[in-house]
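[step 3/7] inverse_fold.run input=structure_tokens len=512
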């Protein structure tokens, strides 16, 4: 999370924790030693650089054959009347849900292009009110709020109801005086919703139902559906997947918080989905072992102003979990591309294309045993806002933060705000022992730093000095251009390439 520093290259004088803590109660165990596979200095980018994801979303789903659910029908009674392990086919059109669907064990919820599950209600009865338009009685009663917003004063991201005019997402403002075209204001105390734009003759909708599909049973399949406009609460998903679920070939878009959330969902698979424009996060994973998140397009998430630098906004975030994140396009999210945080273990982040995300491309934080391998990590970290800057404490294309047993191998890390940030902080105890920077191997990567301000290296706070031998750099390729020449950092000192090698790093690597 955020570190408090004096100036670049100066000693760290403190540490501010912002939400990532762990008091685990499991016995400690040793991290597995790094693999001994021989790697040479790379001369070509990884396969992922030339790979094309291909189609994702409902167009890639298989045709549905099963029990039909027509538009306008409450799906739950149809589901309840059928035996478990039934396939249900949602007809083409907009299915407006007023409550979450609760599948049974083995059920399949399927559709095809044009089958839409919507959590929105249509708003009618608008009246002129001064210079604005108002409708009354549509908002819910007040409810507990949570979540950290980029705007930490008025906190607009905490409220779940969003407004769409002809499908276009409006921006929430927090007072009537701020209202302007393209925005809305919800006065929850007076139960009044205001627009500046004239709603006459327009389709105006407000997201209201919180969840589309809930994890009420194991081994459920969700496929071929578009899931949109749900008022999901921060850290909760429009689709909440459980143990053994398969969520494939869907489009999950424009929901307030998380698009797809795997919760205590061991062995779930999330694949071939388009997960775009959700308010907080594209895909989340919590307390779920062996999950496979593969071949998804995860793009443009955090549309509702959650804290970009440090509160699980952006592409994918996983906590206290394990599994594989591979072959995904994680692009242009307003936050971190792929974030493993708090007691992750046996994590494999391989073959992804992670580009143009506002914060780190990949962050591996207070966790254990990871392989970050064969990814393309390009042009990340240029869009951070509150509480962020350009130092290695603020991250990089790849950020390894107080974790052990991490291998960073065979990646192309190109033109990020910083290339690689390895951080040693005081972070307390976890379920597999103290969170500590140890057994980190950086091998066979291509680092390209053409921006004159981009750096690479190790930073540490005063209470957690980097131990000798904790980090190994070997057989990497560097392309460093621009000035100044001192683009590496270790123990509070910026270094030239020769000084970096004299410190024991990258003695068999090349720099051009």
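[step 3/7] decode complete -> sequence:
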């Amino acid at each position: 999370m955020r570190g408090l520093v004096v100036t670049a290259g100066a000693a760290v004088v403190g540490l501010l924790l912002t939400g990532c803590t762990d008091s685990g109660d499991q016995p400690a165990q040793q991290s597995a030693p790094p693999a001994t596979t021989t790697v040479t200095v790379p001369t070509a980018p990884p396969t992922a650089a030339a790979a094309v994801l291909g189609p994702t979303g409902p167009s890639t789903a298989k045709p549905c054959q099963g029990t039909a659910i027509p538009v306008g029908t409450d799906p739950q009674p149809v589901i309840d009347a059928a035996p478990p392990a039934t396939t249900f086919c949602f007809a083409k059109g907009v299915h407006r849900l007023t409550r979450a669907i609760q599948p049974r064990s083995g059920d399949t919820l399927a559709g095809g292009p044009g089958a839409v599950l919507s959590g929105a209600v249509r708003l009618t009865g608008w009246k002129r009110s001064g210079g604005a338009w108002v409708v009354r009685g549509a908002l819910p009663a007040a409810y507990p709020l949570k979540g950290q917003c980029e705007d930490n004063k008025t906190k607009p991201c905490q409220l779940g109801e969003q407004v769409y005019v002809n499908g276009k997402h409006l921006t929430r403002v927090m007072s009537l005086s701020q209202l302007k075209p393209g925005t809305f204001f919800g006065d929850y105390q007076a139960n009044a919703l205001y627009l500046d734009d004239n709603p006459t003759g327009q389709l105006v909708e407000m997201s209201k139902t919180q969840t589309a599909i809930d994890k009420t049973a194991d081994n459920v399949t969700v496929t071929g559906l578009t899931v949109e406009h749900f008022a999901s609460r921060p850290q909760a998903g429009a689709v909440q997947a459980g143990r053994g679920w398969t969520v494939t070939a869907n489009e999950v878009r424009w929901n307030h918080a998380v698009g797809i959330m795997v919760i205590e969902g061991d062995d779930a698979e999330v694949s071939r989905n388009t997960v775009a424009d959700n308010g907080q996060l594209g895909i989340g994973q919590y307390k779920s072992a062996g999950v496979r998140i593969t071949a998804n397009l995860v793009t443009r998430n955090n549309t509702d102003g959650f804290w970009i630098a440090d509160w699980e906004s952006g592409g994918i975030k996983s906590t206290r979990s394990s599994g594989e994140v591979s072959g995904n396009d994680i692009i242009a999210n307003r936050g971190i591309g792929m974030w493993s945080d708090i007691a992750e273990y046996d994590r494999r982040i391989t073959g992804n294309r992670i580009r143009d995300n506002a914060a780190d491309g990949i962050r591996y934080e207070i966790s254990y045993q990871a392989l970050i391998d064969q990814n393309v990590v390009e042009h990340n970290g240029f869009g951070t806002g509150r509480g962020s800057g350009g130092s290695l404490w603020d991250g990089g294309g790849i950020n390894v933060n107080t974790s052990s047993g991490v291998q960073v191998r065979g990646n192309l890390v190109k033109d990020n705000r910083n290339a690689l940030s390895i951080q040693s902080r005081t972070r307390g105890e976890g379920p597999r022992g103290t969170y500590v920077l140890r057994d980190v191997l950086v091998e066979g990567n291509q680092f390209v730093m053409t921006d004159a301000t981009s750096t690479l290296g190790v930073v540490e706070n005063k209470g957690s000095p980097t131990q000798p031998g904790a980090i190994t750099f070997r057989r990497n390729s560097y392309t460093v251009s621009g000035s100044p020449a001192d683009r590496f950092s270790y123990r509070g000192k910026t270094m030239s390439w020769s000084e970096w090698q004299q410190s024991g790093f990258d003695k068999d690597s090349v720099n051009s």
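[step 4/7] annotate
Residues 75-81 form the longest helix (7 residues).
Residues 122-205 form one domain.
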